[in-house]
Amino acid sequence: MNRIGRLEKMLDRITVIFAFLQQDGAIKLDVLRLVRGKHGVQVEEDVREVIAGDIGEMKLKEPTLLLVAGHGIIRKVFHEGDEDGIRRVTENENIIWERFDRDDGECVICFTRRDKIKSLEDELHGYQVPVIETCLQGVRSGEEGGPMNQEWVRGTAIGLAESFYDRGITWNDLLKGGKRGDSLAALIAGKIKLIALLCLLGLLVVNYLWNTSVREKYASLQLEIASLERDVSGREELSREMERVVREFEGSGTGRMSVVLDRVAALVPPEVNLDMLVVNPLLKGLEEGKSVVTREGCIELSGVTAAPEQVTSFTGRLSSSAFARQVKLVSLDRNRETGLFHFKIWIRL
């Protein structure tokens, strides 16, 4: 059976949840937590009549067996050759069943409607309880199930736990997936941590390489690369355009204006702060593929001051300078929030 080095020894604790279906549709729950030691399996905790909503607070993180008994769980014996009767049960998607084959050729099937326990299974799944198996305890059709006393519950729980450990854990359990395989794989990975995680990830990587998602990811990366190539091409084109604009600006004669700019700066009153000074400003915005259109022989400057009379004084100084043919105060506006005055001046050289 290729047991994996008896990894089940690492899972030395197991939980058995008894779900007793009532005639009125209610479900009574008993939870037994068992531990496997030198002297066999023993009950470590026995909690009776648990409310389903309290299961989450119990933090059940060990392998869990769910045994369902009570009203609506039918136990039927099928004689040898009654394949039609067996198929009527096992091939019905609305029925959950458990089969036991006997040595005399007959088989016993316990079954019930799936909707009787679906809400309970969904709730346990929501609390992340690792249910690895669901067992059924039925009665013959027409019989009533007797009361499940404390001794029966404890004895059954111990028997189920011993069967789990006797069966062990095989590679087939982990590789075939399903409720048992997925839960056991997660529990074992949590126990052996990094080593098991690396092994499982290795298996998953091999499977992942052949998975459809790899092809989808490859296609997504191809689209991303194409987008980056377009972006790079656009940046190169923008860079070439910027180089063209710079060359045109360099040819406009702005490089010989340093002396004039020094003189303009020398005339700025201490109370005035310049925030922009542009030589040959643009007449209109830059357009791709078109020449740069500037206001030749002109300086545009702007700034801010708390004393508007200083702007008038500054404008007068500029008009009296030898380098200025014309000086125009374009705007002088007061900011209501700060109280400061913002101005713009054009100087025709």
Compact summary:
With 349 residues, the protein is an alpha+beta fold. It is built from eight helices and eleven strands. Strand 1 and strand 2 form a beta hairpin.
Report on the architecture of this protein.
- The chain has 349 residues and is α+β, with helices and mostly antiparallel strands.
- It has three domains: 7-188, Nucleotidyltransferase, domain 5 (2-Layer Sandwich), CATH 3.30.420.380; 217-250; 256-348, 2-Layer Sandwich (Alpha-Beta Plaits).
- It has eight helices and eleven strands.
- The chain has helices spanning 83-90, 115-126, 150-167, 171-175, 178-209, 212-250, 258-266, 308-320; strands at residues 13-21, 27-37, 40-50, 64-78, 95-101, 107-113, 131-140, 272-279, 298-305, 326-334, 341-348.
- A hairpin with a 6-residue loop joins strand 10 (326-334) and strand 11 (341-348).
